Structure formats: structure tokens, C-alpha cells
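Record filed here:
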Amino acid sequence: MAPKMLNFITGNENKLTEVKAILGDTVDLQSQSLDLVEIQGAIEEIAADKCRRAAEAVKGPVLVEDTCLCFNALKELPGPYIKWFLEALGHDGLNNLLAAYPDKSAQAVCTFAYCEGPGHKPVIFQGRTNGKIVPARGPTNFGWDPIFEYQGQTYAEMDKVEKNKISHRFLALEKLKTWLQSEA
């Protein structure tokens, strides 16, 4: 049986490369960049809303992702707003947010939402990796990876193959893969 064709809604080449590496030949993944309005709210609400909008726009099956970085000392902020916090503050500024707190623990959260098409309810798949926020180490070409440390290494310092075996994105995509295989 041929793999299911999915429109992965992203303009981020690094995300696309990681998702393709993790999903392998489970699905026929096509990338499409859409400028979607993003609501404010809980992680799952944001992903589901974005997924519904994308399914309407492409008139077919879609996969969207929402990635968060949640600082435990800040009650999970910046959370789904990490993209804007990172743009405004940079890696040093994100570290400075935690300067007054002894707790530097954080969660990397990845939420994928899949929708069969317009009018269908999105299905949510989420992965969380516990780590801590550290001064930036490693290449700075992929978002907040240089400041999120997992078991002694930042995501940026990790070999991509190794990162793809433990990351929040991997954990969420494993759930998606299992679900897709059960639906086939």
C-alpha cells in the first residue's frame, strides 16, 4: 500500500528535514508554506485551530506543528510564544528571563495536529522532553536549540541523528506514526 500523502504546513527547512528524517517512508510528505493566523491560547488549542485553517486552505489532509519552550519557573512561559520571545530577546535574553530564579528547568514541547480535510476534527499528537535552560552552546542556526540542554548536551550540540531519537518532535511524531499505521 502506498504511503498516505500529507501536506506539512511549514516554511522552515530545518523542521521539514527533521520531520522527514523521523517519519521516513511512513507518509508521502509534501511541504507547503502558508501564512496562517495564529490564535492565543493553550498549546493544543493553537495547534488544532491552525490545523483547521490549513485544511480549509489546501482543501485536503494537512499536518501542522507548534513547538514550545516552557520554563517551569515561569509557569510554562514563553510556551507557544517562544518564536516571538526568541526574535525579541535572543538566546541571552531568554536566559536573562530566568536570572532571578534558581529553577532553570524547562520542557521542549512539540504538538502536531493532523486533519483529514475541511470539516474534519484535528487529531493531536504531543511530545515533551525535560531539560534545562543554559547559556547558548553549539550552532545557532535552529531556533532555541543552543539553550535547551538535555542530559548534558544542548540540542544544538547533538548529532542530528541522535537528537531525532530523543527530541520532543520525535516523541510527538512517534505517536503520529503509530496512529497513521493503525488507520491504514
Summary: The first strand starts at residue 4 and ends at 9. The chain has a mean pLDDT of 93.
